[in-house]
Amino acid sequence: MRKFTVYFKTPGKTVEVEKGASLMDAARKAGVFVDAPCGGKGHCGKCRVKVLSGENRYRPSHLLTQEELNQGIRLACLTEVEGDMTVELVQTDTINDIIVEDITSNFDNHSRVKRAIEVLEKSGIKIKNSFDTIRIKLNEPTLDDNISDFDRILKELGFIVKSGELSCPVEVFRKMPRIIRQAGFDVGLVLRKEQKAYEILDITAQKDKKIYGLCVDVGTTTVASCLVDLSTGRIEASASCGNLQMQYGGDVISRIIYSTEPGGLEKLQKAIVYGTVNKLIEKMVHKLGCNHEDIVCSAIAGNTTMAHLFLGIPVENIRLEPYIPVFKNFPVFKAKDVDLGINPNATVYMLPNVASYVGGDIVSGVLASGLWSSDEITLFMDLGTNGELVLGNREWMVACACSAGPAFEGGDISCGMRAAPGAIDEVRVDARTFAPAIKTIGNTKPSGICGSGLIDLIAEMFLSGIIDGKGRIKQNTRNRRIRFNRAVGCWEYLLVSGKNTSDGRDITINEIDIDNFLRAKGAVYSGIKTMLNSVGIDMGDIEKVIIAGGIGQNLDIESSVRIGLLPDIDRGKFEFIGNSSLTGAYLCIVSEEARQKAGQIADMMTYIELSADPAYMEEFVGACFLPHTDLRLFPSASAI
Amino acid sequence: MRKFTVYFKTPGKTVEVEKGASLMDAARKAGVFVDAPCGGKGHCGKCRVKVLSGENRYRPSHLLTQEELNQGIRLACLTEVEGDMTVELVQTDTINDIIVEDITSNFDNHSRVKRAIEVLEKSGIKIKNSFDTIRIKLNEPTLDDNISDFDRILKELGFIVKSGELSCPVEVFRKMPRIIRQAGFDVGLVLRKEQKAYEILDITAQKDKKIYGLCVDVGTTTVASCLVDLSTGRIEASASCGNLQMQYGGDVISRIIYSTEPGGLEKLQKAIVYGTVNKLIEKMVHKLGCNHEDIVCSAIAGNTTMAHLFLGIPVENIRLEPYIPVFKNFPVFKAKDVDLGINPNATVYMLPNVASYVGGDIVSGVLASGLWSSDEITLFMDLGTNGELVLGNREWMVACACSAGPAFEGGDISCGMRAAPGAIDEVRVDARTFAPAIKTIGNTKPSGICGSGLIDLIAEMFLSGIIDGKGRIKQNTRNRRIRFNRAVGCWEYLLVSGKNTSDGRDITINEIDIDNFLRAKGAVYSGIKTMLNSVGIDMGDIEKVIIAGGIGQNLDIESSVRIGLLPDIDRGKFEFIGNSSLTGAYLCIVSEEARQKAGQIADMMTYIELSADPAYMEEFVGACFLPHTDLRLFPSASAI
Fold it and tell me: Which of A403, A424, B184, B218 has its CA 20 to 30 A from that of B423?
């Protein structure tokens, strides 16, 4: 097979591929991130690159205009390499940009964390982890007192050496003699206590050494993390970025499909552990000036598929009926088992899953939300790449997952993007001129629309009569913002003209986008209805709605009710709790008993498999309208 | 720095080195074994190679004759590379040859193993390990019964999932979904039980799967191993070869010195784990047709330095007063922690050390010998590269190590070699003609003399009057076997002329060799005396002498007494037990309680640091004579 070289000019990386390989393959092989929500199947149009030179064969697609083709723009997944090529990235997505937050001013989880801890304490849960640093003074050895270094430590610790009572990993032994002598026989030890057993996790010559816990929320789209000082419980660093697995697909299903390709599972694991989480750790360690060894425990929350992929465990059965994951609870293991870039013997605790589509992120969120300790009937909603719902209180919980697709994070939408700088996250539309007013994250030139922007946009388009209840655009040929897109074969609304966008492309929304979005919101609403039906209560019985997940922060309640995503109930019942998955992971780091509580929460949840519930389909059909076919459910929306 | 290529013709390996590097460096870098008992310091003359072409600078040494130099023979450690070179190995040592024994006919440890087990059982020790294979039938999942694969297994196992009760490593999870379905939901599990905790070590679709335990005796010179069927206790394969660390030095001291060079410790660890033990495992696994994963536990016995190096733990303090090892007991760890080529989660148990120079091999040997359960005052001697001694019975034990050097394994002796095919292991000398009769291991042409051959040779030379009590050769110029070696500057005895040897070189023994050997045997005998003195008993009070170690098998008791290595007591008290270190490791594999007994034995031993004992030096001086300066100690020898 002939081989050719592809040079990616923007990040400056070169890779060799076989003739006929796609530019997408080349990018993945080179470690160059090219977004591919559809998994490289030619459906989403997100993997745009600019071919500067080199022979190639392009399979045509309606997703690019003739003008774009003339400029050399191609979809990477549809371009086959037929000679040495030079390619430029044109994407504006910033997945590789790691955002290290300024904790002191910006990390508003702090107050949420405090509230979550108060809830734990009120329920009698001790805020105590199992890690400790101690300092011991050893006698210097002599010919008459010539016991081994380790025995000298044990003697001082007052342990009787019996198998099982104290363990010490080989990595600590390897540095033990050097550290002991460097410290002048006055050493620090990092200890982990579990029931009656102790483990020496590190040995140090440093005085007052700080040790940290790592919390990670592994989202399908975005990964968020923080480092916690284990003695004070203070969050000392925090960082987030896109999940590098996005180059293999935008949602869990496309990742699962990719995992079954040869080497796919390993690549997905590397993408999340090496490519994403270890980079976040690197940044935070750098910021704090500490060592990787100082991070001695971690808690990882992610949906079931993300948790499996994080560990390199096959996921194909998650997608096939009857949807069987490999694990629900995962035994605590060590960082070195998955090459997580912290102390090799640090404990890694995975938040437990409930079922294939309700994962540890939801259990973590419910832990953080306090739902489990509340008397009020509470609806917990996590609207991320998937839509997961929990309904219940301290006595019972039901949970379900809606096949919402990635619409809430901008996937499956032609101009959609995740909530990163440049994303339009608020929209108002003038009912007369159809002219929009927009706000972008970071107040930069817009690059696309994120979930909360889409909700606003669709609500405003409905309110101003641009679209009808079915999401169809009214063919108003007198307004230039309403136009027919020949390539896609449907009508679209021009939100921002290319003159004013970051990459010169128009930002639009078309009927297919709207349809995708309506199915997403319909899936969520009908999920809520199905859960209520299963326990025999009504929308009105919901006493509290907790909205978590990436979309939560900027979600406009009125817009969401107007489009029929959220139930039309007293607005005072709604509460946003941000990234509750990360907060829950934090709780598991600072409190051993909170971890046990997380396990109880997972065991307590009754999972409803919506796809196996015939009533769900009926609910879904009605919920795909704006706001719903049954307007009695939306009195305030119909009142407008 | 200029770089040159060195091509080792014999094994066919090429390596690039910097100008001025020695051929020894080149060989080590290329992974070509060149023996170097002195650690590459130009003292031992063992690293002979033949330079076929290429510029080089040679530092002259008396260890090669002019004739050899003319033939292109060089010492690798004294030859500096100054151009591209081609080199041939001329060594006859077979360190890289792995001997896989035919268990059914040849492995005479079997009967020793049986006896050792009888001793354990008589003492009420259960012969039971903690591993088990079980078979479980799982229900096939449905939409109504959609618990995870792992929960399905747990349910069938009857466990309640609580942290700490059952663990399952990530490697098992990774194959779990595939194996379960491949097996049609009828799977085998390999379980390890420790107190109340269980660990799933493997999952298999295979019916009647066999699982094995690995036993290794890590000798400084020779490494021996076997695989044990854990359900029957049968030894199913056995293999041994030289310790590849020999290229970095022949005895522990030269290895310790090498370990302090940059990267030295890592190279020594790789040499023993990758280069030696993993290759033995490979051979045995191949022979049995099993998988590496089927080996689920291991027991490793070695001297303190070997145990540290096996784990990559620094050894430099072992050599420096007050001689402090890093550990005595090592907590049980997992194979993947040191890249041992068996099931990554297999337990690795290191036999406990007593002190820096009495290690796990001795504890293992004492366990195997039954000394710990005997009423008789027993002397346990392990004569390998080091000489270790234990004196005691069921109530007390003292132990010491003699700085014997590697003489008993052929090191420090110009024509010495380890007990491998081609080694002269028996010698008789005609008292009139001084003509020798020899026997070689494998009955091949001789290549050198091993330990038992040296003992015989020196005893016979003494008996026939070739040497006097100080080991000096009587300058008998009329016998052509007695000659002056100008290069070395002393007299020597010609044992085998080059005409009859495997490499055409004369096999000789000179006064320096004899002196080295006398100091080795003197160290052992004075060690025995010092131990007896420390507990206030005499040679005559010894009721049993157990001889273990590589030298044991072929050792001639009469010769050994005659030269004053062994005490001159009733010959019926002597017993050989072969490689008792490997037998002890075997016991620890088949019996959990035997492992605890090994720990008790190590704790029970009182270590005598001979170098700190002034009386030892006095004893030593007298013991360097043939047989001793105090002939009353050797009545039978003096009677001749």
Answer: B218
Give the whole-angstrom CA distance, residue A291 versus residue A273.
18
Q: How far apart are CA B34 and CA B245, in angstroms?
A: 10
Other Cβ atoms closer than 10 A to A233:
18
A370-414 pLDDT tens trace? 999 999 999 999 987 778 999 999 999 999 999 776 778 777 788
Task: Please give the structure tokens belonging to residue B125.
Answer: 């020790």
Which residues, in sequence order, are CB contacts of A348 under 8 Å at separation 6+? Answer: A297, A298, A300, A332, A333, A334, A335, A337, A338, A340
Pick from B170, B327, B355: which is nearest to A146 by CB? Answer: B355
Distance (Å, whole) CA A334 – CA B107: 40
Residue B163 buriedness (CB in 10 A; 0-12 / 13-18 / 19+): middle
Residue A103 C-beta-side C-alpha neighbours within 13 Å: 15
Kindly state the tokens that stand for A598.
Answer: 């997380």
DSSP B321: T
* Domains of chain A, first to last: 3-89 (3.10.20.30), 99-125+212-350 (3.30.420.480), 131-204 (3.10.20.880), 371-406+517-638 (3.30.420), 416-506 (no CATH)
Instruction: Count other C-beta atoms under 10 Å from residue B156's C-beta.
Output: 16
Amino acid letter, B81:
V
Half-sphere exposure of A226 (CA within 13 A, CB side): 30
The minimum CA-CA distance between A318 and chain B, rounded to whole Å, is 10
Question: Based on the number of CB atoms within 10 Å of its own CB, is A566 exposed (0-12), middle (13-18) or buried (19 or more)?
Answer: buried
The distance of Cα A58 from the centroid of its chain, to the nearest Å, equals: 33
Which residues, listed in sequence order, are joined to residue B89 by a DSSP beta bridge?
B49
Instruction: Please state, in angstroms and as integers, the Cα–Cα distance from residue B342 to each residue in A169, B231, B348, B375, following that order.
Output: 19, 18, 10, 40
Q: How many CB atoms lie within 10 A of CB B477?
A: 8
In the A/B pair of chains, how many CB contacts fall below 8 A?
Answer: 144
Is 50 exceeded by the pLDDT of residue A121? yes
CA atoms of B201 and B564, how far apart (whole Å): 52
pTM over 0.90: no
Q: Residue A191 is inside which H or E element, if any? A: strand A186-194
How do residues B184-212 score in pLDDT, each as one tens digit? 999 999 999 887 788 999 999 998 899 99
Nearest to A321 among B143, B147, B170 (CB): B143
- The CA dihedral of A382, A385, A386, A388, to the nearest 10 degrees, is -10
User: Of A1-15, B156-170, B281-295, where does the model show the most confidence?
Assistant: B281-295
Query: Does the interface predicted TM-score (ipTM) exceed 0.85?
Result: yes
Q: How far is CA A417 from CA A42, A49, A406, A455, B302, in A?
A: 17, 17, 10, 13, 61
Does residue A433 register a pLDDT over 60? yes
d(CA A260, CA B583): 47
HEC letters along B380-406: EEEECCCEEEEEECCCCEEEEEECCHH
Token couple for A354: 């409930």
A426 Cβ neighbours under 8 A, 6+ residues apart: A438, A439, A452, A453, A456, A554, A556
Residue B242 β-bridge partners: B222
Q: How far is B229 from chain A (nearest CA, A)?
A: 24
Tokens found for residue B256: 């310790």
Is B147's CB within 8 Å of A328's CB? Answer: yes
Question: Cα torsion for B516, B519, B520, B523, to the nearest 10°?
Answer: -170
Q: Which residue of A has its CA nearest to B336?
A: A337
DSSP letters spanning B535-578: HT--GGG--EEEEESTTGGG--HHHHHHTTSS-SS-GGGEEEEE
**CA-based radius of gyration for chain A:** 27
